[in-house]
Amino acid sequence: MSQENVEVVRRGYEHYNRTGEPDYSVLDPEVVYDVSSRTFDPFVYHGHDGVREFLALIQEQWAAFRLEPQEFVDAGDSVVVSVRLVGVGKESGVETTANAAHLWTLRGGKIVRQTAFQTMDEALEAAGLRE
Predict the structure, then answer these.
(1) What is the C-alpha separation between 75 and 62, in angstroms, rounded?
(2) Cβ-based neighbour number of residue 30 at 10 Å
(3) How much is the CA Rg of the chain, to the nearest whole Å?
């Protein structure tokens, strides 16, 4: 099932970049978005309403925002993705980029958790792929 998990996550990025919205059909109703390692607005969001709250925060800060996945790593029930974040500041109009890593955990074809990390090594370690 792990390759299917990679495809679910890949399609999720494509959907977000195309629509500006997550694909709620692949998010478990009790999904957890853990962005507590972020420098700004660190928090843990719960359920679809929490995801909407997180999305509203992004839309409040950015005139445009996209996620450019760089690499997908199959970790069984999880998928680790190195991602380039590209945003245009709402106030400044300046394009800003940053690198991060996302660890997606799936169960039964649904995403049950997304954890954001500053580096790919941190995400790989959390997935049990590094010591």
Answers:
(1) 32
(2) 12
(3) 14
The b-or-e profile of 83-93 (16+ CB within 10 A means b, else e) is: bebbbeeeeee
Rounded Cα gap, residues 89 and 70, in angstroms: 22
Using alpha carbons, list the distances in angstroms from residue 23 to 13, 52, 57.
9, 11, 18
Q: Which helix (H) or strand (E) holds 6?
A: helix 2-19
First to last CA, the chain: 25
pLDDT digits (tens, 9 = 90+) for 60-86: 999 999 999 999 999 999 999 999 999
pLDDT digits (tens, 9 = 90+) for 17-44: 999 999 999 999 999 999 998 666 789 9
DSSP secondary structure string for all residues of 44-111: EEEHHHHHHHHHHHHHHHEEEEEEEEEEEEEETTEEEEEEEEEEEETTT--EEEEEEEEEEEEETTEE
